[in-house]
Specification:
Blueprint lengths: L1 H9 L4 E3 L6 E5 L7 H11 L5 E2 L10 E5 L4 H17 L5 E3 L2 E3 L1
Antiparallel strand pairs: 1-2, 2-4, 3-4, 5-6
């Protein structure tokens, strides 16, 4: 799948799992060592991506963000480019202070 392959090439410390028979991708962010609140806030406010938090699907969802990949390819490409760029430049510096992510 495009999203998984793109991240393998452009953000190898992140993985995207897309189970068979679905259009939801699970972005594995555990390698970043950040809290779920930090990851979710960064995805929504900095990357401008709508995500579902992994923990709402059970304790095994901690460290994951769920993305809907059932949309136009151009939108998925834009999302993957934003994620890869953030991984290169910003994710190592995420902090949460008074509800704001700084980079």
């Amino acid at each position: 799948m495009y999203a998984s392959n793109f991240l393998k090439e452009n953000a190898p410390h992140l993985r995207m799992n897309v189970p068979d028979g679905t259009y939801f991708g699970w972005l594995d962010c555990r390698s970043l060592g950040r809290t779920h609140s930090e990851l979710e806030h960064f995805a929504v406010h900095k990357l401008k991506l709508a995500v579902l938090d992994g923990p709402q699907f059970g304790e095994n969802g901690a460290g994951f963000l769920r993305l809907n990949l059932g949309t136009q390819r151009s939108r998925v490409e834009t999302a993957m480019e934003r994620i890869a760029e953030a991984a290169r430049q910003h994710l190592g510096e995420i902090t949460v202070a008074t509800g704001v992510c700084a980079h």
